[in-house]
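Recall from the previous chapter that SMILES is a line notation for molecules. Here it describes zinc ion.
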Amino acid sequence: MPKSRYIPTDIKKEVAKRAKHLCEYCKCPKAYAPGPFDIEHIIPISKTGTSDSSNLAYSCNGCNGLKYNKIESIDPISNKLTPIFHPRKNKWSDHFTWSDDGLLVVYA
Ligand SMILES: [Zn+2]
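With both inputs in hand, we obtain:
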């Protein structure tokens, strides 16, 4: 797959369907989101990523904006540089859960 940011419409639809129209980072449903969703590169093009569907994630605008082109960040619990959640390699429930009131995503 060439290193292009272009993602064909059929691949965008496939990625959204695979994610069940939920943000792959916060699990927000597209139907309840205040803004548009993005097809984002899990490993950014600028950091060896490709536009292959295995490197694409369905993301709400908020998560995509926060993640930007990062692949690692300081873990607030360990205070160590840690890879960011990878929707194809990591299981969401191993890393996150919902707060008791169901309003926030928190670390599991
Ligand atoms: Zn999100």
